[in-house]
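Re: [ENG-882] Designed sequences occasionally contain unexpected residues at chain ends

Forwarding the minimal case from QA. C-alpha cells:
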C-alpha cells in the first residue's frame, strides 16, 4: 500500500467542501466544490431518464440549500449512451453563485498510483443515524479499468459524485460507482485528467500544484509548517515548548499539548501540526496554535499569514 489514510482532522475539513445532491426533492448522490461557486458530481446522479432530462436539482451545503437552474447544469456527456453505466466521463458541473465564497477542495497535480490509499468524502443513508448523513469510505487504487480507475473497497450508494482524496488531502478524482452494492467488489472513479478537462478554465483558476498557491484551497501540513517557520520564536526549543504549553491552556488540557519532541525545528513543527490534525477536535487544536502564537508574539508580522492559513484549514474563524 502507498502511504497512510487521510487524517481525521483533514477529512473533517475537506467534508466542508462536500454537498449532497437532490433531484425532484429526493437524495440522489454527492458532490463537492471544485472551484468557487462550481459543484462537481456525476452526470448519472442528475439524470432522470436515458435521454438526460433533469428536474428540480438542488444542492445542500453546510451553509444551506440551493436550487440549481437547468441552464446552470452542464453534463458530460449529456446522454447516458446505450451501456449499463453512464458513458465516460460521467461528470456534471453545477454553477451555484451563492457558494462562490466557500472553501473549495484542492486538486492533485498528478494521477494516484496503484496501491495509493484514497478516502471518499460524501453522503449516504448507511450510517447509524437516520436520514442522509456525511459519510466516508476507505478505498485503494487498483489501476486503469477502461477510461476509469478501479478501486478496492466497499462502495456504498449515495457516494456517486463524491471526491476521492489522497493522503495529502488533494482530490484524485470523482467516485463513479460500485461493481456491486450487495458485495464488496470495489468500484471505479473518474480520473483526475477527465475532471480537469471538464473543469477547463475553472481548474486553471484553482491551480494545480501546491495547495498554498490556490486561493481558498485547504492547506497541507507542509504549508502550515512553513508559516510557523516564519516566526523567530519557533527557532528556539523553549519557544516551541511555550507554544505547546499555551495550546494546552486554550484546549483546557491539564498539561501541555503533546507532540513528540525533536531537536530539528522543522521536524518538531511538523509533529505539532500532525498531532493537531489527529486531535479529537482538529479544528480546535489548529485554532489553539494561532491563539497561542498571538499571546507569545503579539506584534509579529507573521501572525497575519498564520491566521489566514489556519482560517482556511478550519473552514473560517466564524465556525466554532
Amino acid at each position: 500500500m502507498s502511504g497512510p489514510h487521510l487524517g481525521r482532522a483533514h477529512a473533517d475539513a475537506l467534508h466542508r467542501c462536500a454537498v449532497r445532491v437532490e433531484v425532484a426533492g429526493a437524495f440522489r448522490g454527492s458532490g463537492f466544490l471544485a472551484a468557487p461557486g462550481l459543484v462537481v458530481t456525476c452526470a448519472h446522479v442528475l439524470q432522470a431518464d436515458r435521454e438526460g432530462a433533469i428536474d428540480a436539482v438542488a444542492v445542500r451545503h453546510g451553509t444551506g440549500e440551493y436550487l440549481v437552474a437547468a441552464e446552470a447544469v452542464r453534463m458530460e456527456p449529456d446522454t447516458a449512451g446505450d451501456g449499463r453505466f453512464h458513458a465516460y466521463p460521467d461528470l456534471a458541473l453545477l454553477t451555484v453563485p451563492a457558494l462562490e465564497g466557500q472553501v473549495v477542495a484542492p486538486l492533485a497535480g498528478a494521477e494516484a498510483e496503484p496501491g495509493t490509499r484514497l478516502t471518499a468524502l460524501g453522503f449516504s443513508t448507511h450510517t447509524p443515524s437516520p436520514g442522509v448523513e456525511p459519510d466516508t469510505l476507505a478505498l485503494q487504487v487498483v489501476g486503469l479499468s477502461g477510461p476509469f480507475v478501479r478501486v478496492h473497497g466497499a462502495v456504498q450508494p449515495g457516494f456517486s459524485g463524491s471526491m476521492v482524496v489522497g493522503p495529502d488531502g488533494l482530490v484524485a478524482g470523482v467516485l463513479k460507482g460500485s461493481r456491486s452494492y450487495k458485495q464488496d467488489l470495489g468500484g471505479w472513479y473518474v480520473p483526475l485528467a477527465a475532471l480537469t478537462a471538464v473543469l477547463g478554465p475553472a481548474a486553471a483558476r484553482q491551480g494545480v500544484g501546491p495547495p498554498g498557491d490556490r486561493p481558498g484551497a485547504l492547506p497541507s501540513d507542509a504549508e502550515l509548517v512553513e508559516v510557523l517557520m516564519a516566526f523567530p520564536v519557533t527557532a528556539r526549543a523553549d519557544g516551541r515548548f511555550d507554544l505547546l504549553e499555551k495550546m494546552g491552556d486554550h484546549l483546557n488540557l491539564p498539561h501541555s499539548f503533546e507532540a513528540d519532541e525533536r531537536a530539528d525545528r522543522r521536524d518538531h513543527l511538523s509533529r505539532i501540526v500532525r498531532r493537531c490534525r489527529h486531535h479529537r477536535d482538529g479544528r480546535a487544536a489548529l485554532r489553539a496554535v494561532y491563539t497561542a502564537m498571538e499571546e507569545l508574539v503579539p506584534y509579529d508580522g507573521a501572525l497575519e499569514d498564520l491566521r489566514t492559513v489556519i482560517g482556511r484549514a478550519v473552514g473560517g474563524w466564524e465556525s466554532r
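QA comment: On inspection the terminal residues look reasonable. The first helix runs from residue 8 to 15. Proposing we downgrade this to a documentation issue.
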